[in-house]
Amino acid sequence: MFQDWRPTCSLDLLRLRAQTLSRIRQFFSERSVMEVETPLLSHSCGTDPQLAFFTSEYCFSPERQTLFLQTSPEFAMKRLLAAGTGSIYQIGKAFRNGESGRFHNPEFTLLEWYRVGFTLPQLMDEITDLIEALFVGKGLQETQRISYQDVFFLYTGLNSLEFSYQSYCAYAIESGLSEAISLCEHDHALWLDMLFSHKVQLNLGDNSLCLVYGYPACQSSLARINEHCDQITDRVELFMNGVELGNGYYELTDAKEQSMRFDTELAIRQENNLPIMVKDQRLIDALAAGLPECSGIAIGLDRLLMLLSGSKSIEDVLAFPIYRA
């Protein structure tokens, strides 16, 4: 008989989750990185046009206030960094509306950490150390590192930094992605997202960790511009067996620049008739007060557990996915 009350994952995978969380905490404890907690409910949220948010009404007399479930603890953690915490990490829940499928659940678990004084290559070294520690005995191959421009050209033959509408359209037609023409139009960032996800990502990290760095500047609102090339940012993404695991930056510390980038995203949201957000002024104030030089990364732990266990769907590693919550 079907029993809807039961968890969708096995007890063995519940134990694997607990063991993995314990190993992560041990990893950061040995490196003197402090664990923190930040609010899930907040008065503001991100401005990213690609993300949809959950809201809740806070009924505190005499006024009702709209609060947001956080898509990431990033902004609050940066406020802690500006207050002088030093290097920190957090394991916690995050929420993204409208996301459900093999690799998505609207409520999911993130590991996010920030290393004060780390450059992006140093963060990439630590990411590699963590993944190797978690996958010990799994026969993981040597970590690969490749620039976005190189890997994009390798699998598409296109220049990711110089947008040619004609060349991108021709490739889309030739590769069976003609729908990209009407979906992306003249938006370079949308083209990159579409082509990367359909033609590049699936090839990355064959039984290994693949670190793709140096993303085009049009795709990274929270990373700083690379000092040697203003067309790219100091951003890295993690892939394993074609699955995206995480996204990290050499963090932007300029309050004015961050505020302008938020304004740009707000304008895009308005142009596309998306819900209007208010930028997080507390984050801007924290940056103005002085965010230390640091690099940070967020990794989806549910996807990581899928890869650790060889599971085919995110519901296999969750006790209760959204349809059974």
Quick gist of this model?
The protein is an alpha+beta fold and 325 residues long. 36% of the residues lie in helices and 22% in strands.
What do these coordinates show?
With 325 residues, the chain is of the alpha+beta class. The chain has a single domain, classed as BirA Bifunctional Protein, domain 2 (2-Layer Sandwich). The chain contains ten helices and eleven strands. The protein has helices spanning 11-30, 74-82, 120-134, 148-156, 165-174, 179-184, 188-200, 255-271, 281-290, 301-309, and strands at 34-35, 41-42, 54-60, 63-69, 88-95, 107-116, 141-147, 208-213, 235-240, 243-250, 294-300. The strands form two sheets. It has an eight-stranded mixed sheet with strand order 1-5-6-11-10-9-8-7, sandwiched between helices. Strands 2-4-3 form a three-stranded antiparallel sheet, with no helix packed on it. A hairpin with a 2-residue loop joins strand 3 (54-60) and strand 4. Helix 2 (74-82) packs parallel to helix 9 (281-290), helix 4 packs across helix 7 (188-200) and helix 8 packs antiparallel against helix 9 (281-290). The radius of gyration is 20 Å and the shape is globular. The relative contact order is 0.17.
